[in-house]
Amino acid sequence: MNETDAWNSFLISGSVLDYLHYKSIQNAKKRNDTLEEEDEIQDKRSDNQGAEYT
Fold it and tell me: Which residue has the higher pLDDT, 27 or 54?
């Protein structure tokens, strides 16, 4: 669903949930769909080495 569809859905229903869905789409566009911090590694790995068992 794109931003326009979400807005039209809200206009028809008047539902708070539809409005929140619209706002979440709008916010995702503003932040370019990234949740990572600017200084975070962009390869989507956690760099967790795990435990070594001997």
Answer: 27
Distances (CA, A) of 43 to 24, 29, 33, 35, 46: 24, 21, 15, 13, 9
Q: Are 25 and 2 spatial neighbours (Cβ–Cβ below 8 Å)?
A: yes
DSSP letter string, 1-54: --HHHHHHHHHHH--HHHHHHHHHHHHHHHTTT--S-TTS-TT-----------
Mean of the per-residue pLDDT values of the chain: 79
Q: Which two tokens stand for residue 25?
A: 């789409």
16, pLDDT greater than 60:
yes
pLDDT band at 36 (very low <50, low <70, confident <90, very high): low
